[in-house]
User: Which sequence fits this backbone?
């Protein structure tokens, strides 16, 4: 099972799709009135959208029981802009989810036009891409292996952020290769333009 994102036509505020009980938690850092970045906080509605599912995404990734997906499941990653337009960290996402646009609708409005506008807004403020294949260890770690770039990622169980997996204790992994992979990871997840804006 990979990722299925369905944009669901639900009108009203904070209403979930039938059978969906869990909001996806976006960890977002905003700036205060002085322009300083604040500690990240969990947000369930961003830019007029929520993402919901019928099971907890953390359980899908970390649990071995019926809620957890099997090893070998495809993992994707998602990121969102904060209210200042700055991209946030990539977070792991997996399974069947519903994108819920929170729309204020007036009688007589063209729903097709309004819905198309919301889809465009989603594309401007969210990005989704493939991360790799899930490997859940007996010790509770959730790693993601990607054969395309040969990097191993680890999923933070608190924030769901995709992080670099250091293998400093691996004697078969030369230090030079570790440094090269760390640089490659930073370029892939923490790239900035000439104006210090995250890209």
Assistant:
């Amino acid at each position: 099972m990979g990722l299925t994102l369905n944009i669901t036509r639900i009108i009203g505020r904070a209403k979930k799709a039938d059978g969906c009980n869990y909001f996806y938690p976006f960890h977002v850092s905003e700036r205060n009135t002085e322009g300083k970045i604040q500690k990240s906080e969990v947000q369930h509605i961003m830019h007029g959208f929520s993402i919901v599912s019928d099971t907890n995404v953390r359980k899908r990734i970390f649990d071995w029981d019926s809620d957890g997906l099997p090893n070998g499941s495809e993992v994707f990653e998602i990121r969102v802009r904060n209210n200042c337009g700055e991209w946030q960290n990539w977070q792991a996402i997996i399974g069947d989810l519903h994108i819920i646009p929170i729309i204020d609708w007036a009688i007589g409005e063209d729903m097709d036009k309004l819905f198309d506008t919301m889809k465009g807004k989603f594309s401007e403020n969210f990005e989704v891409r493939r991360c790799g294949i899930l490997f859940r260890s007996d010790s509770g770690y959730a790693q993601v292996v990607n054969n395309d770039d040969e990097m191993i990622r680890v999923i933070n169980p608190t924030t769901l952020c995709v992080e670099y997996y250091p293998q400093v204790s691996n004697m078969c992994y030369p230090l030079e290769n570790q440094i090269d992979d760390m640089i490659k990871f930073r370029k892939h997840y923490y790239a900035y333009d000439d104006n210090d804006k995250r890209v």
User: Anything to note?
Assistant: Residues 132 and 147 are 8 Å apart (CA to CA).
